[in-house]
């Protein structure tokens, strides 16, 4: 796997070098808000990411420790990409991004989540983080059961 050469030690530069293109944010969207976690599910998104670009972006997320790559307990030839704690800590950022985008593009977005954010953003973020951690924990339990 390739490593990312940093242009500087600036925290904003660090973030931009990882997330500075549309594909990374769309992958995070799919992982956090759309329940997607396999290569084929990501490929099925409306934006039609190519296989080569998807592979590159997933590898970057793996290298950076934002996702882990696990074998599916239901299908040994299928891999699942799960957010790590580092990835889950991006939820507040993605919620703000979602909220901003829905304000200026009111035709899109998950309405139920947007309503929860409008009612109580802090609670919505806490619940989403807990849900993502629970999904990760459930996957780990399924692996143990499969052994």
Automatic annotation (TrEMBL):
Gene3D superfamilies: Winged helix-like DNA-binding domain superfamily/Winged helix DNA-binding domain
PANTHER family reported for this sequence: HTH-TYPE TRANSCRIPTIONAL REGULATOR YODB, TRANSCRIPTIONAL REGULATOR, MARR FAMILY
UniProt xrefs under Pfam families: HxlR
Annotated ranges, domain HTH hxlR-type: 10-109
Taxonomy of the source species: Bacteria, Pseudomonadati, Bacteroidota, Sphingobacteriia, Sphingobacteriales
InterPro entries: HTH_HxlR, WH-like_DNA-bd_sf, WH_DNA-bd_sf
Protein name: Winged helix-turn-helix transcriptional regulator
Sorted UniProt keywords: DNA-binding, Transcription, Transcription regulation
Domain of life assignment: Bacteria
């Amino acid at each position: 796997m390739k490593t990312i050469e940093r242009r500087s030690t600036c925290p904003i530069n660090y973030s931009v070098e990882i997330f500075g293109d549309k594909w990374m944010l769309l992958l995070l969207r799919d992982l956090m808000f759309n329940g997607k976690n396999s290569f084929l599910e990501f490929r099925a998104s409306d934006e039609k990411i190519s296989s080569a670009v998807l592979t590159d972006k997933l590898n970057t997320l793996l290298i950076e420790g934002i996702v882990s790559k696990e074998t599916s307990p239901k299908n040994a030839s299928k891999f699942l990409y799960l957010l790590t704690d580092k990835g889950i800590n991006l939820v507040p950022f993605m919620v703000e991004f979602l909220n901003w985008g829905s304000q200026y593009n009111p035709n899109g977005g998950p309405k139920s989540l947007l309503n929860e954010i409008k009612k109580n953003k802090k609670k919505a973020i806490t619940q989403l983080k807990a849900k993502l951690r629970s999904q990760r924990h459930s996957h780990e339990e399924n692996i143990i059961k499969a052994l």
